[in-house]
Write a structure and sequence with these properties.
mainly alpha, transmembrane, oxidoreductase activity, acting on paired donors, with incorporation or reduction of molecular oxygen, binds protoporphyrin IX containing FE, two-stranded antiparallel ribbon, 4 strands, 28% helix, metal-binding, Cytochrome P450, 4 helices, iron
């Protein structure tokens, strides 16, 4: 955010607009912070707190593209590199929260993009994917969203 004054100021304005009315920070006003959700998503894409997730082990022999992976192989998933893969992300290295704006909604409405971190978009796996993905995703997001 320090490197992106435009984004910082936009976010500050949103937070002030939501909370200046009462002066209190309350959970119920969180839904008004639509831009904050985009900023958090973009931060998780470029800077996943667990960049290599947790190591896994293949249960049985499998093939992924040209790779033949024997059973019981230790596997490391590079979520950091996947989140910056230019095959899946336009201007992958640029911090650009607006990339997640769903084109069906205007920016002032509640925003939700079809690309999310919930484990079904494999280009965005900051919380992992599959049956061992993060259990604390809802709690973690609530903590991040609370200013
Ligand atoms: C922004 C916050 C968080 C991030 C980015 C995050 C990320 C992750 C990642 C990447 C994994 C490994 C998933 C995989 O290897 O596929 C994981 C696992 C896990 N996380 Fe989180 N986590 C966060 C917050 C939390 C919180 C707040 C809790 C608990 C309250 C939590 C509990 C767990 C547990 C129990 C697992 C292991 C799940 C399993 O192995 O079955 N996480 N998390």
């Amino acid at each position: 955010m320090m490197k992106n004054p435009r984004i910082r100021e936009k976010e500050q304005a949103e937070v002030r607009q939501a909370y200046d009315k009462t002066g209190d920070v309350s959970e119920s006003d969180l839904q008004e912070l639509a831009y904050l959700k985009l900023v958090i998503k973009e931060t998780l894409r470029l800077h996943p707190p667990l960049p290599l997730l947790l190591p896994g082990e293949s249960m049985e022999r499998c093939e992924i593209n040209v790779y033949k992976i024997p059973a019981k192989t230790k596997l490391v998933f590079n979520a950091w590199a996947i989140g910056r893969d230019s095959n899946y992300w336009n201007e992958a290295e640029r911090f650009n929260p607006e990339r997640f704006i769903n084109s069906f909604f205007s920016e002032s409405k509640f925003i939700s993009s079809s690309v999310d971190y919930k484990g079904t978009n494999f280009e965005f796996i900051s919380f992992g994917a599959g049956r061992r993905m993060c259990l604390g995703i809802s709690y973690g997001m609530a903590v991040l969203e609370t200013p």
